Amino acid sequence: MAPPRYWKGYLKLSLVTCAVSLTPATSSSEKIRFHTINSETGNRVRSRYVDAETGKVVSDKDQAKGYEIEEGRQIILEEDEIEAAAVESTRTINIEQFVPADSIDWIWYDSPYYLLPEDDVAEEAFAVIREAMKATDTVGISRLVLARRERAVMLVPRDKGIVLWTLRYGDEVREADEIYGKAPQKSGEKEMVSLIQTLIKDKTVKWEPSLAQDPVQDKLKDIIAAKEKDQKKKPAKKKKDEDDEIETPNNVVSIMDALKRSIDKEKKGKR
């Protein structure tokens, strides 16, 4: 069963327009989610908004969006005022510019969505835009309102469709120099780099989604299943082997020696 559409609207490039829809490219529906409950009664705990000063519960009709202009002073915005601020990009993805496909660094990427033509009539125009971006090795830049926030978005042609990435805002991305500093980059010794390359080659495998599997979710499912059956499960004591032994060094070991031992260990493991 296909997942429901997250957003429906139009893709526009100059005079070419077609109906499209967005579906999230990722899902968290399989993640285990916990409810906060009263441990004495087993009933769920309900959260409420309360006035920070009076402590009284604030009803839904009295809740509003406020922006603090200074301590103790709030500017209240109505829902229609917030919606009117970005009305033009609410239902149309108007491709305004194109940039080389490799010119946007990965750090700007936020959330991916699959962009699809909504009907048979839209397929031809959609395909023309997609194939033209492929041929020119470019991606499209536009703006779109999602969850009441106007976002810069990037359209990347991929396979039969287009992947739409929301992009992070400029003030969300830190410059690398802020973290690494502006000191000149240090180069590693050629012999050690060569040893690392050998390690990388030995450990290189074909990518599979299982490499990014979340082991915590699997363990939680096991615990929940065991509790459901009202069984007390004692964790088996892990047997120590050579890989588990942690050697506490009492002297300084050179990086070169450590690399050589790592490569020897990899070769022994393969044999």
Walk me through the structure.
9% of the residues are buried. The chain has an eight-stranded mixed beta sheet with strand order 5-1-2-7-10-9-8-6. Among the domains are: 7-28 and 85-170, Ku70, Chain: A, Domain 2; 190-235 and 250-270, no CATH class. The chain starts with 6 loop residues before the first strand and ends with a helix. Strand 3 and strand 4 (73-77) form a beta hairpin. By secondary structure, the chain is of the alpha+beta class. It has helices spanning 79-84, 120-136, 176-180, 190-203, 215-228, 255-270, and strands spanning 7-13, 16-24, 65-70, 73-77, 92-94, 97-100, 109-117, 138-146, 149-158, 161-167.
Low-confidence stretches: 248-252
CATH third-level topology of the domain at 7-28 and 85-170: Ku70, Chain: A, Domain 2
Summarize the helix and strand pattern as letters: EEEEHEEEHEEEHHHH
The CATH class designation of the domain at 7-28 and 85-170 is Mainly Beta
Structural class: alpha+beta
**Which strand-content bin applies to the residues?**
25-35%
Count, helices: 6
- The Rg value, from CA coordinates, equals 27 Å
Query: What proportion of the residues is helical, as a percent range?
Result: 25-40%
Please tell me what the overall shape is: extended
Q: What oligomerization state is this entry in?
A: single chain
The biggest beta sheet, please?
A: 8 strands, mixed
Number of strands: 10
Strands of the largest sheet, in order across it? 5-1-2-7-10-9-8-6
Question: How far do the termini sit from each other?
Answer: 46 Å
- Give me the CATH architecture of the domain at 7-28 and 85-170, please: Beta Barrel
Mean pLDDT: 81
